[in-house]
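User: Can you recover a sequence for this backbone? Please restate the input before giving your answer.

Assistant: Of course. Working from this structure:
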């Protein structure tokens, strides 16, 4: 449902029930349950709503509610007792056995009971926050139990939300797609990339669309290069099992390319479902795949070793972590350069670096403009370029650096910044975060900020030759080690330095 308030269009979800598979997992505890709770707290949940959480652990609803309460207190800074009690009333627990058809039949009966109790009839979404190996099994069994049918009540709908990773290579992503298509229509499938849900990412489209000063110069005539940095200070934090098979390049690829798409795509005709999806698809079809020579010259892979200190103790390296073999060559850092072969971006390099155990958390997109010739001041040899920093998180700001005249009776130039903080005004503090936004959009049936199967195929097609070359011919692109909490392998700096540039 859309509400127009002056120039404002707001997404408001209709009444529905949510089913959370993986309800006892880490992702549920850290992100999904806090997001539901925050929607409740800020009165953004539908008026009639229930949340049925499913997990393999045997426990009853009372025990589950107690564990959720404890987690919410840990992961939400603002969990007051009255809000907690009100929210937990909406939550129930069903012990899951994803391999058993009997579980899904029992779940269907339980959901009918919850529907009847709340007055929500057959409008449900199923959030798959389980290990990816069970995605297909769950989809098949949901279908077999009739839970994906969109009939049986007026306005009935059934949606599946799928967490990443969407497959672990091209073949498995295609298989997942094929099988899903047998069980659910594409309009029922919501593939999550929570980066698209970040306010600061969405604001890039706004910046480009409704500020005339940018779009006219948003191209290779004016822009020298684009840089995307995604740094985290955390290591793999107990996710070695997952990480050993994925590595940073595959783990973060979707986030990188979704950000690149928002920066680089043509502005869509409409900011609704297909408009954005089609613009992204056209952009991805222009991304130049890396040749073997490109992979050798223009990719860098690294792994964190021991180093840095937290709470007074030296941090262990990746290979010393629990569940990791001492000779693991899984990368925890990845950098690359790529090009987009279309009118707008021909010849403009896109540099990307992403890593764990970096000196701090920092997600940032930088647009570096071409150097000015200085006009009438050309003789002075201007040394700076205009740089637009789009700070995505944790700092949420836009900084545009300008060349200005240095104050005083002499002619020299100085670099000054114009800065815009996103959360400056009170009403900007308590807006939905990324996971809240994705729940809201899924409940409202808005697929605009979800990922299409074509996006997934593009990404796997792009990354597969890279990881295969790393695996099959490691001598051509060796794994480089960097100390924990350092800025990554120096080769990531050389990637730009050899082009006469530097990271911002
Ligand atoms: C996830 C990755 O998708 O994104 C994690 O699997 C990563 O490895 C996380 O830590 C980063 O998300 P955010 O929103 O904290 O930047």
């Amino acid at each position: 449902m859309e509400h127009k308030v002056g120039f404002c269009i707001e997404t408001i979800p209709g009444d529905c029930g949510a089913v959370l598979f993986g309800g006892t997992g880490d992702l549920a505890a850290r992100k999904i349950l806090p997001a539901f709770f925050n929607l409740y707290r800020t009165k953004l949940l539908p008026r009639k709503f229930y949340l049925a959480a499913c997990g393999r652990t045997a426990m009853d609803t009372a025990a589950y509610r107690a564990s959720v309460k404890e987690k919410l207190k840990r992961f939400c800074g603002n969990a007051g007792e009255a809000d907690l009690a009100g929210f937990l009333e909406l939550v129930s627990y069903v012990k899951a056995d994803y391999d058993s058809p009997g579980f899904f039949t029992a779940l269907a009966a339980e959901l009918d009971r919850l529907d009847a109790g709340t007055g929500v009839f057959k409008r449900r979404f199923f959030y798959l926050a389980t290990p990816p190996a069970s995605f297909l099994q769950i989809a098949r069994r949901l279908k077999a139990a009739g839970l994906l049918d969109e009939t049986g009540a007026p306005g009935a709908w059934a949606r599946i939300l799928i967490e990443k990773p969407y497959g672990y290579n091209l073949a498995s992503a295609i298989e997942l797609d094929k099988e899903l298509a047998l069980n659910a229509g594409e309009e029922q499938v919501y593939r999550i990339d929570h980066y698209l849900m970040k306010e600061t990412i969405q604001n890039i489209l706004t910046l480009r669309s409704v500020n005339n000063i940018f779009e006219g110069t948003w191209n290779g005539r004016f822009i020298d290069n684009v840089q995307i940095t995604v740094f985290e200070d955390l290591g793999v934090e107990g996710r070695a099992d997952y990480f050993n098979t994925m590595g940073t390049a595959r783990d973060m690829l979707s986030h990188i390319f979704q950000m690149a798409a928002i920066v680089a795509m043509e502005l869509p005709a409409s900011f609704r479902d297909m408009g954005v999806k089609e613009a992204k698809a056209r952009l991805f079809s222009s991304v130049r795949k890396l040749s073997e020579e490109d992979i050798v010259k223009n990719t860098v892979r690294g792994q964190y070793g021991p180093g840095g200190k937290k709470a007074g103790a030296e941090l262990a390296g990746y290979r010393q972590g629990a569940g990791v073999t001492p000779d693991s060559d899984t990368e925890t850092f990845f950098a690359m350069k790529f090009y987009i072969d279309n009118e707008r971006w021909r010849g403009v390099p896109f540099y990307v670096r992403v890593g764990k155990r970096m000196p701090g958390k920092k997600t940032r997109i930088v647009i570096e403009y071409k150097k000015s010739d200085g006009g009438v001041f050309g003789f002075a040899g201007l040394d700076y370029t205009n740089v637009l920093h789009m700070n995505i998180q944790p700092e949420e700001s836009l900084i545009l650096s300008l060349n200005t005249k240095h104050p005083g009776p002499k002619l020299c130039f100085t670099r000054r910044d114009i800065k815009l903080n996103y959360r400056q005004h009170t009403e900007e503090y308590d807006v939905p975060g990324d996971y809240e936004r994705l729940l809201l959009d899924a409940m409202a049936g808005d697929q605009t900020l979800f990922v299409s199967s074509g996006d997934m195929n593009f990404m796997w097609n792009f990354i597969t030759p890279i990881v295969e070359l790393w695996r099959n011919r490691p001598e051509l692109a060796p794994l480089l080690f960097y100390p924990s909490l350092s800025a990554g392998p120096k080769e990531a700096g050389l990637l730009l330095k050899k082009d006469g540039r530097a990271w911002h």
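That completes the design. The chain has 14 helices and 19 strands.
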